[in-house]
Amino acid sequence: MSAEVVLQTEPVGRRGEHLYFALRNPKVAGGLAVVLALLLLGLIGPFFLSDSPNEYVGPKSEAPSGAHWFGTTYFGQDVFTQFVHGLRSSYLVGTLGGGIAFVIGLAVGFTAGYRGGLVDEVLNMVTNVVLVLPALAVLIVISSYLEVRGVVAQAVIIGVFSWPWVARAVRAQTFTLANRDYVDLARLTGKRSWRIIVHEIMPNMASYLLMSMILLFGGAILFAAMLDFIGLGPANAVSLGTMMQQSMAWSSLHLGMWWWFVPPGLAITLIVGALYITNVGLDEVFNPKLREM
Amino acid sequence: MLELRNVWKSYRVGTLGSKRLTAVRDVSIDIAPGEVLSVVGESGSGKTTIGKMVLQLTSVTRGSILLDGADVTARGHAARKAYYRRVQGVFQDPFSSYNPIFKADRIFEAVRESYFPAVKRAEWSARVDDVLQGVRLDPGSVLGKYPHQLSGGQLQRMLIARALLLDIQVLVADEIISMLDASTRIDVLNLLGELKERGLGVLFITHDLSLANYISERVVIMRHGAVVEAGATGKVFTDPRHPYSRNLLASVPQLHRKWSDSDAEPEALEPDGDRDVPPPPLTEVDEHHWVAGV
């Protein structure tokens, strides 16, 4: 009975339907609002502020005030300007690094899981080799050998090393999904393999894929922050991680300069946390069974 | 019409395909138009593999499958697509045959996309309504719903309707009613009977002898990947010559018999041996009646 009611109120079209439920899900709406607000700040903020976040603009070690919203650093740099520029590079690292890892992971995972056999064994071997490489050590070595360390180079390195777990998880899911009868039925309808992967298998993993995208995005941001924090960050730009590294290097914690390290730390936490909450909400959106109960 | 000629199937298993598992051994069967051929056997007898090979979902290791005299095994995508216009299948689990996150009527739309892209939407939905009524479903009550909102019987009938949208000659029905309850079972079974009257050849795969007897003219009994007995349903069921067939027939539960009444011990059977050697050949013991190893 309740199913009938839901059916009649459902808007026509699958995409519209998902959007309809997504926008009415408080978790999705709230999580996305936080992520987008910070993204917006990072995108348009720099246009209203100084182009050089490392410029010495004000008194040293000043607490937040009307002139310097987030206060100033030990050297008199504006923390808010740095923060806004840092957001920008963090989102860039997350998008690029996470995106590269996502594409490689998906390609390897789907190919291995759907084709199976020898193809699977070879790809799985490569995946396992990359998986057991101590990524942090490799990243440290590569990063320290690069002449110019930019945000993009950092993102590419992170992307190339963080795909294996996605590939493994996608492969495992594809294995079980590829054996469902509806995949056979799609083959009986004369569909090609890539169409079956995209139209039959991928939608069933949509929530999972979004989750990996979100985890990779967040993971890349965290990884970048970690590299920055140990002094292997971009040499020519400000990021949230380098801000934290600088603040620690100049003992802001002991000097009580909380305004120097709290904004970047909080921003990283907020971005990653909001992405997780979005993902939980998206699961409810994509699964009609969860939705109707 | 559809003919399997000395078909073998072995799967590669283990690391880098180091071991082989032979699932089907030297099977030759044929289906004529307007005929239901039942393939009966226990789990692991290779009957489902035969269905999958006919549907080209798995490759044939040795031997060939012919449709109207032309070999259809291992061809390109276009040829395979054309083949599926004439040969279709319905599977055992109705709930696994539908992608759970899409509405069930998507299977009809997929057929239009692949085979009738030129047909207008309105004309297509008229055709869908027609075939749905043909399988005695009310279009209004099954269209626009998710699979979990429909019953197993409705879902299986929709799959049959889907097959009928194409001008098929052969339908492979792999255990299609074993997951339905008793009352819907007979409806779907009678539907197969109607398809047969229309001139379709049906490959009916089942483990249930009484169903095979009910619906089919000819029956093939399989064990360990090979045919042990084959022939006209009446002959095989009234006069089973192979010990395995006799055991199978004795094991069918009957309405007026309790388990405590049965005293017959099953006959001793040959154990599963080397599956790579050809199985004992079939010999004709009677008109339209073949038995292995007599």
UniProtKB/TrEMBL annotation, chain A:
The keyword Membrane applies. This is ABC transporter permease. InterPro entries: BP-dependent_transpt_permease (IPR050366), MetI-like (IPR000515), MetI-like_sf (IPR035906). Pfam families: BPD_transp_1 (PF00528). Keywords: Cell membrane, Membrane, Transmembrane, Transmembrane helix, Transport. GO terms for molecular function: dipeptide transmembrane transporter activity. It is found in: Cell membrane. It comes from Glycomyces terrestris. The keyword Repressor does not apply. The chain crosses the membrane at residues 28-49, 91-114, 126-146, 152-170, 208-237, 257-282. The lineage of its organism: Bacteria, Bacillati, Actinomycetota, Actinomycetes, Glycomycetales. Residues 87-279 form the ABC transmembrane type-1 domain. PANTHER family: D,D-DIPEPTIDE TRANSPORT SYSTEM PERMEASE PROTEIN DDPC-RELATED, OLIGOPEPTIDE TRANSPORT SYSTEM PERMEASE PROTEIN APPC. Its main location: membrane. One of its GO terms (cellular component) is plasma membrane. Belongs to the binding-protein-dependent transport system permease family. It is a multi-pass membrane protein.
TrEMBL record, chain B:
Keywords: ATP-binding, Nucleotide-binding, Transport. Residues 285-294 have a biased composition (Basic and acidic residues). GO terms for biological process: peptide transport. Residues 2-249 form the ABC transporter domain. One of its GO terms (molecular function) is ATP binding. Residues 262-271 have a biased composition (Acidic residues). Residues 260-294 are annotated as: Disordered. It comes from the Bacteria. The keyword Zinc does not apply. PANTHER family: ABC-TYPE DIPEPTIDE/OLIGOPEPTIDE TRANSPORT SYSTEM, ATPASE COMPONENT (PTHR43230), ABC-TYPE DIPEPTIDE_OLIGOPEPTIDE TRANSPORT SYSTEM, ATPASE COMPONENT (PTHR43230:SF3). This is ABC transporter ATP-binding protein. It comes from Glycomyces terrestris. The lineage of its organism: Bacteria, Bacillati, Actinomycetota, Actinomycetes, Glycomycetales.
